[in-house]
Design goal:
By secondary structure, the chain is of the alpha+beta class. It is 15% helix and 39% strand. It has one domain (6-127): Thiol Ester Dehydrase, Chain A, CATH 3.10.129. The protein has helices at 28-43, 48-53, and strands at residues 6-12, 56-67, 76-87, 90-99, 102-115. Strand 3 (76-87) and strand 4 (90-99) form a beta hairpin. The radius of gyration is 16 Å and the shape is elongated.
Length: 142
């Protein structure tokens, strides 16, 4: 992966993601961001399950969300994620969620790389960094 890499997916708002007024609960946008990150990895042939099985953990160290318009039950949203920066042990992503031409939400996350024993690790080369963590099996070619 490289800085500037991005991915988008469509999401239909489910009833259980809304509050009593039929508006998406604010906390669900972080879940949409997480799904976007996982699908970005999958788009690049990297299984998040395989990453964790290799002993590397990708943890949210910082998250921000800006809300502009409400999303409603049954809306079709486009969730877009972009790799904004890779430095040291962190990957920063930006997000935009739209309904048609209407911008609903913008967001940001900083993801830290840790070993299973909570030691900070540099972002590995196969994720666009300079660290030497072994590639997960989804990237190993037989």
């Amino acid at each position: 992966m490289d800085i500037g890499d991005g991915f988008s997916y469509e999401l239909r708002v489910r009833y259980q993601e809304t509050d009593g007024q039929g508006i998406v609960h604010h906390g669900n946008y972080l879940t949409y961001f997480e799904k976007a990150r996982i699908e970005l990895l999958r788009h690049h042939g990297i299984s998040y399950r395989d990453i964790e099985e290799s002993g590397l953990m990708l943890v949210v160290a910082e998250a921000r969300v800006e809300y502009f318009q409400p999303a409603l039950f049954d809306d079709l949203l486009l969730v877009s994620v972009t790799v904004a920066r890779i430095k040291g042990a962190a990957i920063e992503h930006t997000y935009v969620i739209t309904r048609g031409e209407i911008e609903i939400v913008r967001g940001f996350t900083r993801i830290g790389c840790l070993s299973k024993d909570s030691r900070i690790k540099r972002v590995p080369t196969w994720l666009g960094g300079k660290g030497d963590w072994p590639a997960p099996r989804s990237l190993v070619k037989d």
